[in-house]
Specification:
Helices cover 39% and strands 16% of the residues. The radius of gyration is 21 Å and the shape is globular. The protein folds into two domains: 239 residues, Type I PLP-dependent aspartate aminotransferase-like (Major domain) (Aspartate Aminotransferase, domain 2, 3-Layer(aba) Sandwich), CATH 3.40.640; 101 residues, Aspartate Aminotransferase, domain 1 (Alpha-Beta Complex), CATH 3.90.1150. It starts with 7 loop residues before the first strand and ends in a 10-residue tail after the last helix. It is α/β, with parallel strands linked by helices. The strands form five sheets. Strands 4-3-5-8 form a four-stranded parallel beta sheet, sandwiched between helices. A three-stranded antiparallel beta sheet has the order 2-10-9, sandwiched between helices. The relative contact order is 0.17. The structure holds pyridoxal-5'-phosphate. Pyridoxal-5'-phosphate binds next to loops.
Length: 376
């Protein structure tokens, strides 16, 4: 097996993958309607439930072909009964995406807005639930990838359940990284795509959740043909297959990535991401960069740093310098502040971050930015 050029991706997904995962895609051609292929997906679906410590009798996973946004679309359009309302607990770009999905489908919803650099106020969440007994679905984002803030999902889930609503969480940027316990965390549905925490390829997304609720949703309005949770679940249960063509090679890569996930282990993997995250902070601190979210409220996977006040600072130029040397950095996602992001996803470790900061410092010097950087 020939080594493939290794790029260090510090963007929030797709992430750096191992060569064994890359090569797992190179397989003999197969029609995905063959039993052999359906058998592969059965084990894969069970593994996806086990990652969040779900009991496979009570919880299941449903696969879709698409990027992670497809999951948000599916849970919202599929799991809302007629005449009921969605509550989106919104403190960032990904929950805003959920609000936009509600708008596109014409779903009755409340966009409960909080500042992007603060955790939602649970008193306000509870009051909203009390004032609106027609809320049947509460949705939020675990790690708001735009800023890196960690939301208190266990507490929000408990409030949702106390008011008779189901709780769906966008865990795309924590799943298979920061440990999640679906039951203890009061989650009915969580989700991710294979290219983030699992360190596989793009094109496969999945929703992990409560079987009984999916079965109950059979009676709910069908708002999409391709993106309906019950229809896809039911097809899987009856045939073991996806309703429409699956991303075949990505599924092979994901199966290999899962093997590597179990080999590394949940705790060891989380510790590795934590080492990377701390190395990112150390590097930024040494260069004088400030970040946006209070350290103790960060999810431990994404750091949002503020642009320095230096006339020579040019994100594009710094990006291009690093990119040419195998390191990818990423712009921020906050409309009111100019930021860039460094993420701890992927098959990388502390040494990669040290190597990155050597190049990043060079990039600053090369573009004439004063080090340590200055803020007004
Ligand atoms: C990456 C991500 C998604 C999916 O985004 P795509 O552009 O569809 O891949 C959804 N939610 C969160 C929190 C994410 O980090």
């Amino acid at each position: 097996m020939e080594a493939i050029k290794r790029n260090i991706l510090l963007n929030p997904g797709p992430s750096t993958t191992t060569d064994t995962v890359k090569y797992a895609q190179v397989v003999p051609d197969i029609c995905p309607r063959e039993k052999e292929f359906g058998g592969l997906m059965k084990g894969l679906r069970e593994d996806l439930v086990k990652i969040v410590h779900g009991d496979t009798e009570e919880y299941t996973s449903v696969l879709f072909c698409g990027s992670g946004t497809i999951n948000i679309d599916i849970v919202l359009n599929s799991l809302l009964p007629e005449g009921k309302k969605v509550l989106v607990v919104n403190n960032g770009a990904y929950s805003t995406r959920a609000v936009e999905i509600c708008q596109y489908y014409g779903l009755p919803h409340i966009d409960l807005h909080f500042p992007v650099d603060q955790r939602p106020d649970l008193v306000v969440v509870e009051q909203t639930l009390r004032d609106n007994p027609d809320i049947a679905l509460v949705h939020t984002t675990h790690n708001e990838t735009g800023t890196g803030i960690l939301n208190p999902i266990r507490e929000i889930g408990a409030l949702a359940h106390a008011h008779g609503a189901i709780f769906t969480v966008d865990t795309t940027s924590t799943y298979a990284m920061r440990p999640i316990d679906i039951e203890a965390d009061n989650i009915d549905f969580c989700m991710a795509s294979a290219q983030k925490g699992l360190m596989a390829m793009t094109g496969l997304s999945f929703i992990v959740g409560n079987r009984q609720i999916i079965e109950a949703s059979k009676a709910y309005p069908k708002r999409s043909y391709y993106c309906n949770l019950y229809l896809q679940y039911d097809f899987f249960e009856r045939t073991g297959e996806m309703h429409f063509t699956p991303p075949v090679q990505t599924i092979y890569a994901t199966i290999q990535a899962l093997k590597e996930y179990w080999q590394e282990g949940e705790q060891a993997k989380w510790e590795r991401h934590t080492r990377v995250f701390e190395a990112i902070h150390k590097g930024l601190d040494e260069l004088g960069f400030r970040d946006v979210i209070k350290r103790e409220e960060q999810a431990g996977l994404v750091v949002s740093a503020i642009y320095p006040d230096d006339p020579n600072w040019n994100f594009e130029a710094v990006h291009d310098y690093c990119y040419a040397r195998g390191f990818t950095i990423y712009p921020g996602k906050i409309s009111t502040t100019n930021t860039f992001r460094l993420c701890a996803l992927g098959a990388i470790d502390e040494q990669d971050i040290r190597d990155f900061f050597a190049v990043f410092r060079e990039a600053l010097e090369h573009t004439g930015v004063q080090v340590p950087v200055r803020y007004r």
